[in-house]
């Protein structure tokens, strides 16, 4: 039996403006960049570390901690300079994530899906890049809800993208891993469109899986609205460095 979370969903976790782009050199992992970034984020990391053990024991979700990091621009670090971002190197970002994880691993893990999305965005169209980099600089973050734990054969999904009369679509289904989706403004979801869905398959529900403070349990709400222009078919998915996606 799992204990209830002590904090309800907070839809305002990302409703804060980010600061102006950081003054760092793009993709140059020198100590000057890292030193300046440490100076910026170290006080926040210290405040996060101070309450980490208590949050973990009480299963308190880190809304305030993530809100403070996002307000300081932590989610924008890999946005390219050509789009107005700081574009710090992967090495510098990794060093900061290691330090954040030392303060509270639950908080650091929330940025896994977000930065995975940012890296894959480098291989997308100019129009997609322009839209999403702008949103991220305005404070948007991206969670993940792709994996299903049971009820589907290898290579298939139970989650469906169902068109609605008059336009638009809704998602129906449940996901098993959804790290950061509760704290994010957007969630990246894998789903089948109606032309590939097998109606004989029965949906299943798994409600007892997840980590204490990662918001990883069953996030996909039945009837969640999907924005058509954000949907992409499998052949359009990319295979980039470190991100391999089967067609």
From TrEMBL:
<protein>
    <submittedName>
        <fullName>Acyl-CoA dehydrogenase probable dibenzothiophene desulfurization enzyme</fullName>
    </submittedName>
</protein>
<dbReference type="InterPro" id="IPR046373">
    <property type="entry name" value="Acyl-CoA_Oxase/DH_mid-dom_sf"/>
</dbReference>
<dbReference type="Pfam" id="PF02771">
    <property type="entry name" value="Acyl-CoA_dh_N"/>
</dbReference>
<feature type="domain" description="Acyl-CoA dehydrogenase/oxidase N-terminal">
    <location>
        <begin position="46"/>
        <end position="139"/>
    </location>
</feature>
<dbReference type="InterPro" id="IPR013786">
    <property type="entry name" value="AcylCoA_DH/ox_N"/>
</dbReference>
<feature type="region of interest" description="Disordered">
    <location>
        <begin position="195"/>
        <end position="247"/>
    </location>
</feature>
<feature type="region of interest" description="Disordered">
    <location>
        <begin position="1"/>
        <end position="20"/>
    </location>
</feature>
<feature type="compositionally biased region" description="Basic and acidic residues">
    <location>
        <begin position="227"/>
        <end position="247"/>
    </location>
</feature>
<dbReference type="InterPro" id="IPR009100">
    <property type="entry name" value="AcylCoA_DH/oxidase_NM_dom_sf"/>
</dbReference>
<dbReference type="GO" id="GO:0016627">
    <property type="term" value="F:oxidoreductase activity, acting on the CH-CH group of donors"/>
</dbReference>
<dbReference type="InterPro" id="IPR037069">
    <property type="entry name" value="AcylCoA_DH/ox_N_sf"/>
</dbReference>
<dbReference type="GO" id="GO:0050660">
    <property type="term" value="F:flavin adenine dinucleotide binding"/>
</dbReference>
């Amino acid at each position: 039996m799992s204990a209830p979370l002590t904090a309800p969903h907070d839809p305002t976790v990302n409703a804060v403006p980010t600061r102006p782009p950081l003054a760092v050199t793009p993709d140059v992992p020198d100590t000057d960049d890292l030193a300046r970034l440490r100076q910026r984020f170290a006080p926040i990391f210290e405040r996060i570390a101070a309450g980490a053990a208590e949050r973990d024991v009480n299963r308190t979700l880190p809304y305030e901690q993530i809100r403070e990091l996002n307000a300081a621009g932590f989610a924008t670090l890999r946005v390219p300079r050509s789009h107005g971002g700081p574009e710090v190197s992967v090495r510098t970002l990794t060093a900061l994530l290691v330090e954040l994880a030392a303060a509270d691993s639950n908080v650091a893990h929330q940025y896994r899906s977000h930065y995975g999305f940012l890296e894959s965005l480098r291989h997308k169209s100019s129009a997609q890049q322009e839209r999403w980099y702008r949103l991220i600089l305005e404070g948007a973050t991206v969670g993940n809800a792709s994996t299903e734990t049971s009820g589907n054969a290898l290579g298939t999904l139970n989650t469906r993208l169902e068109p609605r009369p008059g336009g638009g679509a809704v998602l129906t289904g449940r996901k098993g891993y959804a790290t950061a989706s509760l704290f994010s403004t957007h969630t990246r979801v894998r789903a089948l469109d109606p032309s590939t869905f097998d109606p004989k398959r029965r949906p299943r529900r798994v409600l007892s899986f997840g980590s204490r403070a990662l918001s990883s349990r069953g996030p996909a709400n039945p009837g969640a609205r999907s924005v058509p222009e954000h949907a992409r078919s499998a052949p359009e998915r990319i295979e980039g460095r470190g991100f391999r996606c089967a067609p």
